[in-house]
Amino acid sequence: MSGAQGKAAKIAGGVGVIAEVDESRINTRLEQGWIDESYKDLEKLFKAVQRAIDEKKATALAYHGNIVDLLQYVEKNNIHIELLSDQTSCHAAYDGGYCPQGLTFKERTQMLLQDKEKFEKLVDKTLVDHFKLIKKLVDRGTYFFDYGNSFLKAIYDTGEMQVSKNGIDDSEGFIFPSYVEDIMGPMLFDYGYGPFRWVCLSGKEEDLIKTDKAAMDCIDINRRCQDRDNYNWIRDAKKNELVVGTKARILYQDAAGRLKIALKFNEMVKNNEVGPIMLGRDHHDVSGTDSPFRETANIKDGSNIMADMATQCFAGNAGRGMSLVALHNGGGVGIGKSINGGFGMVLDGSERVDTILSTSIPWDVMGGVARRAWARNDHSIETVIKFNKDFNDTDHITLPFIANESLVKDLINKNIK
């Protein structure tokens, strides 16, 4: 359990249930206000769910127990689930990231230390049972998406071939899409929208409030629906109590939006309106990560099976003068399953920083949009055309020549026998 799932459900106006075997995680989220209530009894839990639905009350509930127990109860009692996902740490399924059904968290830890062979067999059995339950619920109308933490890959690694899309191997992915393939890619990444971050290094709440206001002023809510959503997000950020610890904020923006906000922040630092600010982003971004089961799953120009985009993003950011540039392996889906390139940029109010921002932020975002355009993702092609027009004095991205499918088929039929 992270804080994100329950908080997201409440912000979206839904009723969220998050299963977690480690009670300490639940207690932390209760103390921080990220979830509202916790239950060990499934009957009581779903009475609370139904009550919240009837009252149209946005609620985040925790189930202290195994997700497979929860799904078995749902399936047996014919309870309809609108949305279902899994954020288990399956990149380390056999090292404690996935808890077998029938074991408490304490028993899982003991078995992991004392009898790992038996532990691994129980993990495999639970993963397969988990998968079969999801299939049943999907057949009943549930929308399931893979978050990307190697959940479906872990099922495939048990030898359960039903999860394979082509029924042979994992080269074409799995029967359920990752949420990047189905949601994030076409709705956000294809346009260049991703998790733009900033930290108020002064540690002052008032600086965070000022930057929220400045970011809102930079967003044109009539440009795209994504901009209106992001405006509402930042407008309500304080009310939704999103900060735990560091005075930081995250806001999905595209290349032009990030640059506009970054330059405004640097101006505010220059004018002593706020203290220094550190910019960054999540690695789960448009250009920052190569991961065949998540970020690059739907970039079929070769990026879905290669790992060079993040490296190029990293090198370009270094060459353009970012304060901190990182390249690492793993990042949520496991070592060997992704390459991540990240950056940090300290805003000190100088013209030097303005120059770095103007060259590096478009590079950091548009490399990924270019890949998506070369993969013939429609919205990315539209985005690149507009970018080339808006930045025609400084930048240019080549576009693919889209062949006429019927012409290609006719030529093949005529010339190949």
Brief overview, please?
The chain is α/β, with parallel strands linked by helices and 417 residues long. The protein has helices at residues 4-11, 23-32, 42-54, 67-76, 105-114, 116-139, 151-157, 179-187, 205-218, 225-235, 255-270, 309-320, 351-374, 378-390, 405-415, and strands at residues 15-20, 37-39, 59-64, 83-84, 143-144, 194-200, 248-253, 277-281, 289-290, 324-329, 339-347.
Structure, described:
This protein is of the alpha/beta class and about 425 residues long. It has two domains: about 5-185, Rossmann fold, CATH 3.40.50; about 185-385, Urocanase superfamily (Urocanase fold, 3-Layer(aba) Sandwich). It has helices spanning about 5-10, 25-30, 40-55, 65-75, 105-115, 115-140, 150-155, 180-185, 205-220, 225-235, 255-270, 310-320, 350-375, 380-390, 405-415; strands spanning about 15-20, 35-40, 60-65, 85, 145, 195-200, 250-255, 275-280, 290, 325-330, 340-345. Strands 6, 7, 8, 9, 10 and 11 form a six-stranded antiparallel beta sheet that branches. The chain has a three-stranded parallel beta sheet with strand order 1-3-2. Helix 9 (about 205-220) crosses helix 11. The model has no long low-confidence stretch (mean pLDDT about 95).
